[in-house]
Amino acid sequence: METADVVIIGGGIVGLTVAFHLAKAGAGKVVLCERNALGSGTSALSGAMCGQQAELTDTISRLAVRALETYENFADRVGGNPGFFNHGILGLASNLENAQARAADARRNGSDARALTADETLTFFPEVNAEGFGASILYPRTGCVDAYHTMHAYAAQARRLGADLREFTPVARIDAQKGRIQAVHTPQGAISPGRVVLACGPWSHKVAHSAGLHLPIETTQVGVSFYRQPPDFFERPPVLSAELAIIPWHNKHFRVLRDTRKPLVRVEPDPADAVCPQWMVEHTTEVIQHRLPKMRRGRFQGAYQTCYDDTPDLRPLLGFVPEIENLFLDCGWSGRGFKFSVALGEYNAKWILEGKTELDLAPWLASRFRLLGS
Length: 374
Ligand SMILES: Cc1cc2nc3c(=O)[nH]c(=O)nc-3n(C[C@H](O)[C@H](O)[C@H](O)COP(=O)(O)OP(=O)(O)OC[C@H]3O[C@@H](n4cnc5c(N)ncnc54)[C@H](O)[C@@H]3O)c2cc1C
Hints:
Layout: E1 2-9, H1 13-24, E2 30-33, H2 58-72, H3 74-77, E3 89-93, H4 96-107, E4 114-117, H5 118-124, E5 135-139, H6 147-160, E6 164-166, E7 173-177, E8 180-186, E9 189-198, H7 204-209, E10 218-228, E11 239-241, E12 245-249, E13 253-259, H8 278-291, E14 299-310, E15 317-321, E16 324-331, H9 337-354
Parallel strand pairs: 1-2, 1-9, 2-6, 3-11, 9-16
Antiparallel strand pairs: 3-5, 4-5, 7-8, 8-9, 10-13, 10-14, 11-12, 12-13, 15-16
Helix pairs in contact: 1-6, 1-9, 2-9
The chain binds flavin-adenine dinucleotide.
């Protein structure tokens, strides 16, 4: 049987960042199996924003700042161009006191967040209608990247460093015996792995099931609508976070994200068609036209539906699985995995190789759930 030091299952942003950093760390034979083309899962549909609001712990807040630093120094740290739109993120807030408290909290860990009064908000972004909000928080340095450019930059560099990235190589099952994954089965044959990284996003629980594990991941609905700006387009618009996220996109477009948390709606990650429901499109249209009135002369250009991989507490499943010693989980990232996988890839590669991490990631550890036989 073929052998490999590490087999990564899934070629989205999570799998690709880990593959790059493992190869860079000299991890030996690193094989990544992707059932389709690289970057064809949910990462390709991501907003890929790198917001820097205060997080659950200081460690997690600093990771968000680290993602931004990676994007800013991408050519040196990774190689290539992530297509960074660093026009800032502007989050509307109920009042100045609230905005100041949140900005101060974020700044403690290196974010450059600052609170703006209602007047300052309009000075920064004159086209916004901030009705109903008394202030805002501005994250001036950050924004979003092009998800495809970023993933393919990681893929190119991982390959250059010797990682074997195999497209159209679905993993049918992983065999667990004696507390270890003994074989990873693909149509091209089985691989006997030293370690396995499960990075299949919303498909992770299906693969884990073949090893007798139950991952508490639900796949939940999110819609993305695209709008062309009118001819008198916006100059350097920031990402606007109000009722929904309005994200500047290539060639004078915006994308508007609409998830359904209340109530949470479950959808299949492989739908027969990925058409966005009409009510979602009506909502995104209403919000973009209300918050950016100039967009009443813009043009709706299509929408699709995709999903998040949600755990019960909306936090990822990260780290080695106590029940299967050579299986590392890196999934369940819900709507926040793009920036965190960019920030974490190097730490995770070290963790996978050395069996422990220097970061305190307690809230994210997979071991907080009982995964075997539930
Ligand atoms: C609409 C939307 C907006 C988002 N916005 C943001 C944002 O602004 N900022 C942010 O940080 N995060 C955001 N996220 C979250 C982020 O995009 C995801 O957390 C992240 O992309 C997940 O990456 P992944 O590699 O785990 O999953 P995926 O990209 O889904 O990759 C999993 C891969 O596994 C492959 N696979 C599945 N089954 C198998 C198998 N059996 N064998 C081999 N391969 C298999 C799939 O084909 C897929 O390519 C957003 C997500 C969505 C959906």
